[in-house]
Input
Amino acid sequence: MSSNAETAQAQAASAKPTRLAPIVTPDAKFFWDAADRGEFVGQRCGDCGHYRFPPRPMCPQCNSLNTEIVSLSGRGSVCSWIRPLHPMPFGFQSPPVVATIDLKEGTRMVSNLVDVAFGDIRAGMPVEVSFADTMGNHKVPVFRPVGG
Ligand code: ZN
Output
């Protein structure tokens, strides 16, 4: 191994995430704990089966407090997107793409798009979940393009 490769490897190993850790509320603790394990989960009503996001105690369809925590497909499509340039979002090396994602389960969430040039993003573009490291050894779900 050349010394350049060793230096690059050492720099990568010592690079710590600068992205802020998520703010964990009691209602969403299950979601963030799962993300830390690389799992993408959500809430489904135990009575009517309605999926909901963001996490909250009561079903907006039938007012049931009977909640199931279920694995989500991690698949969806891009609804809308922006790239906030000013002020530069704290903790990012370059402006992130902020997008609303329509999940296959029927909920919509705000996240980031990664591994795609801003000009290549299209409405309805299929995406899948991935996870980005944050400060404090946590992870947050992000989305990347999948398939054609
Ligand atoms: Zn319900």
Q: What stands out?
A: The chain has a mean pLDDT of 92. The chain has one domain: 19-145.
